[in-house]
Amino acid sequence: DIQLSHRVQKVKPSPTLAVTARAKELKAQGKDIIGLGAGEPDFDTPEHIKEAAIAAIRDGFTKYTAVDGTPGLKDAVIEKFRRDNALEYQPAQILVSSGGKQSFYNMAQALLNSGDEAIIAAPYWVSYPDMVLLADGKPVVIEAGIEQGFKITPEQLQAAITPQTRLVVLNSPSNPTGVAYTRAELAALGEVLRQHPKIVIASDDMYEHILWADEPFCNIVNACPELYERTVVMNGVSKAYSMTGWRIGYAGGPEKLIQSMKKIQSQSTSNPASISQAAAEAALRGDQSCIQEMLKAFKERHDFVVQRLNRIKGVHCLASQGAFYSFPDMSSAIDATGTENDVQFAEYLLNEAEVALVPGSAFGKPGYMRLSFATSLDNLREALDRLARLLGEE
Ligand code: PLP
């Protein structure tokens, strides 16, 4: 029998992928499943981005690159941070990785020692706690349910901080809630963080461009510039340009930490795919109007989904400001169906309504479900009709 490491036994496989796999299995059996589990835009990668990749292949740009990204892409990232976020970085402060997920993984590995605490708000993106565990860190979860708009308060943040706190993770707009913090809310959190100079902040801005709030996008550094020296801003091309399969993410932050993240990457994966880097450079430098088209569709779907969900019995859904997810509280509906918890309820919905949702417990919030609207309005209409028929409508 093979003895596995304690490390690998501390984590679980990504649960969002598990639901997608189960839905696929049922589809293969001929069932007419509507999958609302996807964590990726349903649009094709824009043509000019694909063309840049094809040109890169033709030009023989198919070899190792610098570990931390090509000079051209790093320069495009620096310009992007300047243009969209009013943030200035030197090349040594930028690391390009194989997806935003690897950026975060590198950071956790470079920053955390055994027992170091990382503060994460629940509901959270599924991978944060597990990547902290893989670095032998300790996830410290702050609960932020629907009653507080899925946002942590400065008081909660203050109460969660201990001498062991090394990292605070912020993700706005959020996966899985779609909720975005306002500048004032971020400034209030920043006020707490200012008092704790040893804490590093990770600002995961992955959904920056999928945002329809009243005010423009703002992250913790914009709201509290003093935190620049110890904040890692993470972003990528997966969601903004519908490029999930290309695997390009990037981070900007303090040189010492970024260089340490680069060292981890140099001894694990080396550079991200050269061809993907060429495509990402075209995405960041090229016409940005492709983002607006996707944004318009997501907003329209959001409005439809929230309005329909709130008419279903036992379902309470908050209107949100971005990303492509709704995160309704379905605890009353779960009770009414006699299923025991959200995981069983997800199975029940798959079997009885042929609709795939991800249980909230995957994101640290049992009793909720995540619905992805990265699918057509026709699909959403049909899925919500099915849910309404099964659960009843008010
Ligand atoms: N951060 C958040 C909040 C996400 O939802 C995701 C993807 O689902 C990522 C980061 C990582 O995306 P990628 O690794 O495709 O860049």
Automatic annotation (TrEMBL):
The keyword Signal belongs to this UniProt entry's keyword annotation: no
InterPro entries: Aminotransferase_I/II_large (IPR004839), AspAT/PAT-like (IPR050596), NHTrfase_class1_PyrdxlP-BS (IPR004838), PyrdxlP-dep_Trfase (IPR015424), PyrdxlP-dep_Trfase_major (IPR015421), PyrdxlP-dep_Trfase_small (IPR015422)
Its EC number(s): 2.6.1.-
Coiled-coil residue windows: none
Pfam families documented for this protein: Aminotran_1_2
Annotated Aminotransferase class I/classII large domain residues: 31-387
Keywords: Aminotransferase, Pyridoxal phosphate, Transferase
Required cofactor names: pyridoxal 5'-phosphate
Keyword Transferase: yes
Molecular-function annotations in GO: pyridoxal phosphate binding; transaminase activity
BP term (GO), one: amino acid metabolic process
Homology family: Belongs to the class-I pyridoxal-phosphate-dependent aminotransferase family.
Official protein name in the record: Aminotransferase
